[in-house]
Queue: 4 jobs
Job 1
Amino acid sequence: MATKIGVVVFPGSNCEHDVVKALGLFGPARVEAGLVWHGERSLAGYDAIVLPGGFAHGDYLRPGALARFSPVMEAVAKYAADGGPVVGICNGFQVLTEAGLLPGALQKNRGLRFLCTTVGVSVCTTRTVLTGESTVGAQLSLPINHFEGNFTCDAATLERLRAEDRIVLRYTANPNGSLDDIAGVCNEDGNVVGLMPHPERACDAMTSSTDGMGLLESLVVAATRRAHVPV
């Protein structure tokens, strides 16, 4: 039976179909990816959840600030607490921080410029659902597309992220001013990951890189393991 991955859609999401298409490259026998409307209150039956990029609820107040109150986010919080793999990409990362599922916050880019380019990132840990099949130090080329991707947190939180091996990805040439070059972080258990780069946009020969497939492979492996855990 195929591993089932849900991609949450908020009003204003615009990368959900990109994620579904990228996951579809693994083939229907291995992965079944589908959309989950933000009004859903249950994630039963899913082996992993992705919060995609876009402008959830128009990014009013702050990116992710309204999306955190969507009914599905209570289900996401319960799913994550139960050990379920959850990945937030770009706006999805912002939603996870606003919901308190990840530490820190995303603020406006240094120089107040919208960034749409390809950047280099380095894998910092393999203890997460997004990097479990990677290697520490691996260099990846991934697209970014954001105005508020500048990760920030207080000094104590940064010290804890470093000490607990929770910095997942770092930029090799910081494009947005993120503290400590951080491009992605995880929760204590490594099953919730947020990142600003878009791995789903680096998955086939028509793009500048296929490095995103390795990250999605890790997610699929983690989801498959969860699918085979006895209930």
Note: The CA atoms of residues 68 and 99 lie 5 Å apart.
Job 2
Amino acid sequence: MKVSVSTISIAELDVDLLFVPITVEELEAGLTDLSEAFGSAIERARSDIRGDGSHATVLYPEEGTAKRIVLVGLGQSADVTLEKLRLAASKAASVSYEFKAETVGIAIPSLSINGDDTAQALVEGFVLGSYRFTRYRTGLVTGEAAQRLVIQTTDHDKQVRRGADRGRIVAEAVCTARDLVNLSPDEKTPTLFSKAIEKSGKKHGYEVSIWDKALIEEEGMTGLLAVNRGSQEPPTFSVLEWHPENSRNSRPVILVGKGVVFDTGGLSLKPTKDSMDSMKSDMAGAASVVGTMEAIAKLDLPLYVVGLIPATDNRPGENAYVPGDVVKMHSGKTVEVLNTDAEGRMILADALSYASSFYPEIVIDVATLTGAAVVALGDFIAAVMTNDEKGSEDRLADIILAGSESGDRVHPLPMFDEYNEQIKSTIADLKNVGGRGAGSITAAKFLEHFVDYPWIHVDIAGPSFLAQGRGYSQAGGTGFGVRLLTRFLQNLSEKKR
């Protein structure tokens, strides 16, 4: 989608559909400016506008050049947030899709939020709300996404342009992650997934190195190899690198994404309904790392960032690892496997151990790790945890802020040492499951044993994949994590000025 900014008057903006967000104060004041621009249709539509943003009012103006106008209430101006702007813009996207509008305009509302952030939120909401995954549709697809989006503003032109460009870049990166998650499993074996990552790197300008099984064996990533034993497809390990000349950090920020391309549970087989049937999404953490690398490269972010993606499927093949196996991991620690469906932490542990070789400034892993996170927080929000290293409170505050600003919200869970008792093994250093209670925390405590640097763990099992669409996300992959990580990195970059 082409996105541009125009300072032409709202009455002269020639588009198929013009979206105008309305605050309660503007509604109560009579919308006189809009009436002057578009005629009496505005006044007639006033009673149809709901101030809470739950409804879009479509009207056909007698005057002005826009063919249709969509009015959406934002509520009280003091209560308007970036997320409310995204959700309002997604309504405009739905209407534009329905009417097959090729060109859409969005008028920047007068708010206390700066034009930069307002424009970014509106563009993100519209582009994400326009997303449809139609790769496997053979029949007639109803509606079409807009080809051109114009942000209309009367001042702060440079700020608005900057925000609109950033919104487009970030939203397109989210759509990349959504596409990867939504792909049929037979189209994203570890090898095919790694090729997609290579293609992304060449297109967007970051470096990619793919390890085959021989290199993985040479490095001693036995957790990844154990999970892969039941598969007919070999594993891969992808190293993604963005290292611009003007980097503000000498030690990299490392992003680790869980890349289980399909998870049957292995010999600890999952039930199909509401479980295995959505496990093509078990690589959503890896997809979010790919999307983030695309975003920071296109934004030319002055940070040294490395992405690590261990990839395999988890199947009950004839040589599959079994409950009772003891695996000596990449770090040298031994793990007693008591549930083969706790495979994500096995492959992440090797990647986190390998990350030490970069002497990282901070490492963030993103993973669809536990159903317990869904039980605790539902599908609106991700769980976040960190190790008790120096600066842990600041790290949590930074990732929570990035979640609030980006719309990919996270909530912290505790990491008390007492939880280590649940993952003690009687025959090895650790066991790979901690029992029914506090499953998200014990999974994080397991991973903590493989890090020796500042580290943040984000469990995205809930919000990464939706059974039913909501807001600006259709059913399926949401791309959760891309906006969170990108915003975190942007904020970190600003701190280093």
Note: The chain has a mean pLDDT of 95.
Job 3
Amino acid sequence: MNSRPVQDIAARLISRAVPSLTALSLLATPLFAQEETSTFAVLGKAGIIGLFIMLLSIVALAVIIENFVSLNRDKLAPPELIDEVQALFDEGQYQEAMELCENEPSFFTNVAGAGVAKIGHSFSVIEQSISEMGDEESIRLHQKIGWLSLIANIAPMMGLLGTVSGMVKAFNEIASSGGQANPADLAKGISEALLTTLLGLIVAIPTTAAFAFLRNRLVKTVIEVGAIVEDLFERFRPENA
């Protein structure tokens, strides 16, 4: 089975990522306005919670790239496999079609294979088997992108946790100094509070957008593949049904 060249996929990912990266760089510009401020210094000011948010961003990026590659239309339902299965059906070679589905696992072949395995039974049994396998495969695929939804929800909550933590530190400084705290001492806690909030939003916003895009594309593909499989087995429907 031929697959799309990795270079083409990478180029598409880069082209989609450039606008988001540009926007994020504009958001991050105030953080690096001063020459003495480095990336590590900013992360240091964000504290341990900020570090966890950055780790979440790495996980989110990995999941996004993996899903962009594995959940595209040609991976879930390779056109050449659809043509081969249809040709075998036209020739009545259902055993060969079953072997092809088993040897070339994908969303299409898994759903079609479930129907082929029930050939010889009533059409309602075939239809139910296809429907059940389609639902099972759809749930499995949605679980893959579900991690992005989880990260998109956790990131701003961790940012809020960092905000509360930073403000607690600032007020503790005021309390311990008897209300005579040095503004420079207060700035550390306030800086942590604001930075963690900013980092949480920077991670959550593009992750939410990626989740919505992947979910919509997956739903569209599942519907298209379902229609193809339905047409494939339509020949087994009784004429009086």
Note: DSSP finds eight helices and no strands in the chain.
Job 4
Amino acid sequence: MLRYILLSKLHRGTVTECDINYNGSIKIDPDLLDAAGMRPFEKVEIFNVNNGERFSTYIIEGERGSGEIGINGAAARKAMVGDIVIIVNYGLMDDKEAAAHQPTIVVLDANNRPVK
């Protein structure tokens, strides 16, 4: 049996832009993707702490070093600039893999920089 297991989480990121006219996705600073082990075009779930919205989309790279987290397309109606979000990805693992797995949790400050 395979189970969906948390791979990584960007915890308490701040939305820096919302663009309803973009063709969908979430734009994330590649430095944050590297820290979490996330990849462009990977499916992610987004949890909006401010309003309780939960939605899924795929990642596109933003500008490296910018700290940007941009919600695009229809999902832009589910967030506002300044909202706090949690971004997670999951992977399929068998019980043996899951028992040995430790997810990567990256806690972010108000400027979307990892808290050490």
Note: Helices lie at 30-36, 95-100.
